[in-house]
Amino acid sequence: MLPSIDFPQVTLPEYMYKYYDLWSDRIGLQCCDTDRQYTYNELAVRTKAFAANLKNKIDLQDGDAVCTILGNIPEYSIISLGIIHANCVCTTCNPVYTSEEIYKQLINSDAKCIVVSNDVYDRVKVAVDKLPKPLPIIVINPQNGSVPKGVHNYEDFVNPNTNLDVLSKLKKPSLDDTIFRPYSSGTTGLPKGVDLTHRNLVCNLEQQTSSKMLVIPSLGEDYPLVVPGILPFFHIYGLSVLLYGKLILGQKVVAMPTFTINKFVDMLKKHQPHSLHVVPPLVFLMSLNPNITKEDLKNVGIVLSGAAPVGLSDFDNLKKKLSFKECCIMQGYGLTETSPVALGFHRKLKNYNPGSIGHLLPNTEMRLVDPSTGKDVDDGQLGELWLRGPQVMKGYYKNEKATKESITEDGFFKTGDIACVEDGLVYIKDRIKELIKVKGFQVAPAELEQILRSHPDIVDCAVVGVPHEFFGESPKAFVVKRENSKISADDVADFLAKQVVEYKRLSGGVEFLNAIPKSAAGKILRRELRSQK
Which domain holds residue 482? Predict the structure, then answer.
């Protein structure tokens, strides 16, 4: 066990600015497409200007939600932290969502303003036009600065000469105020807004850095530490662990606005990164891609994979391309609801197995609970992983029922994952939650089922995750069609595909049944359906 630590009692902007001042002249963010870059001082100046202008130009009120719909651009940290500095809530949205998916999040999150990149604007405009009343939109176009008529230009919000007086008049926030509202499906149901606080984020960043779980001591302080910004910043893993987590260490994050394997290969060759934050499909790609060589990975000292389990054979294949003598390949564990990291490997603790998710972070507790009895299980036995710590969310936005079902009265969050402890290490073995993980992204069966049931020829349906060699899992639909209907599997798949982002589509196939198996209480028996694959 790692010893407990004391946490700074500061807001997230205060916490981040302290490090921006420390690394003032270093490059903190760079775009891999255009090479535009920002020093830490420039990040601080633009973040404060953006915060001030949200008040000056938009007149946002404390607690208002601002929806960011952006790719991995260097300005993401400026925009997200600026929203928080303005005492507002940043709700992050996937930039490849369809207009319908964007509309649903705008409604559910109660967004009062939108910040969007120019390439996504057309889809956002369709979503906004469906709202009861229009929302102010701030558009960023890094290519040439021009934006559509009738919207705000991001460049006007980050002028270094902005009057910052409004910031000194802001009400001092509580550390338990919500600052982020990313979306997660939890263990069941439709995507829900996860309310994360100043305390959640600051404590989790401290938990990661104080334990030195991601430090490479032998490189030295003067070594130019570079990290590819390839995990989506709209996801809490990419935002907290990769973006904010590297900025507080004085490192340079090279942001990739859109991911392709060729871009990734070029980035490795050009920037020679020291660490990689990845998801399982990338581990697979790196291990097999002949264009990624030992020379490209010669400085890599840490490979951290999250979001879903990695096959040990993929780890073994990747190891053959890594030459740094102290290189560590490991898995971590977390959820949107835990800000996100709860477990990982620490250099202070010697026991290590890449198949495990490691050790609890400081000030984090866990229980392994038998779902049928509610009692704790012994080491070596399987139980649902429950977690408690300062990183556990405040709750689900506007969903008290789901919050009470997920968090016990004494503060343990029920993850829905089945785990066991062996030789002091934690291993994920199975899950009881319905969530499907496709390339590390969450897919909620209930969301897809709701859309499918709107088809006039579909009487009933159920969606489950089935194994996929590359994606990890794929959504598969079991459908009961209306009597005499001639609807085909392709018709079903095409109907859904028009309404959801690519990774939510039915790449696992469609199968017709006479009835969906359900319990006496009407709950879909998903395990029974998975056995039919």
Answer: 436-530
Query: In the predicted model, what is the mean pLDDT of the chain?
Result: 91
Question: Which residues, 6 or more positions from 160, have their beta carbon under 8 angstroms from its beta carbon?
Answer: 45, 46, 49
pLDDT computed for residue 222 by the predictor: 53
Residue numbers of the chain with a pLDDT score lower than 50: 217-218
**Is 333 part of a structural domain of the chain?**
no
Residue 141, pLDDT score: 95
Q: Is residue 75 in some structural domain?
A: no
pLDDT of residue 325: 65
Inter-residue long-range contacts of 81-84, CB under 8 Å, 24+ positions, other chains counted: 81/12, 81/13, 81/16, 81/47, 82/46, 82/47, 82/48, 82/49, 82/50, 82/51, 82/54, 82/157, 83/50, 83/51, 83/54, 83/115, 84/11, 84/12, 84/13, 84/51, 84/179, 84/180, 84/198
Please report whether residue 315 resides in a domain. no
- State residue 202's pLDDT score: 98
Determine how many CB atoms are found less than 10 A away from the CB of residue 461. Answer: 25
User: What are the tens digits of pLDDT across the range 88-115?
Assistant: 999 999 999 999 999 999 999 999 999 9
3-state secondary structure of 355: coil
Q: What is the pTM of this model?
A: 0.89
Q: Are 328 and 345 in contact (CB under 8 A)?
A: yes
Residues 6 or more apart in contact with residue 428 via CB below 8 angstroms: 309, 333, 357, 385, 417, 418, 419
Predicted pLDDT at 120 = 96
Contact 125, 119 (CB under 8 A): no
Residue 217 confidence (pLDDT): 46
Residues with Cβ within 8 Å of residue 110, at least 6 apart in sequence: 65
Helix, strand, or coil (residue 420): strand
Give 377-404 pLDDT, tens digit per residue. 998 899 999 999 999 999 999 999 999 9
**Is 165 among the domain residues?**
no
CATH of the domain at 491: 3.30.300.30
Alpha-carbon distance of 362 to 205, in angstroms, equals 11
Domain total for the chain? 1
* Per-residue pLDDT, 155: 96
Phi, then psi, of 153 in degrees rounded to 5: -95, 125
DSSP 8-state assignment for residue 448? H
Residue 172, number of CB atoms within 10 A of its CB: 6
Query: Rounded CA gap, 424 and 359, in Å?
Result: 8
CB 135 within 8 A of CB 112: yes
- Asked whether the bond before 340 is cis by omega within 30 degrees of 0, the reply is yes
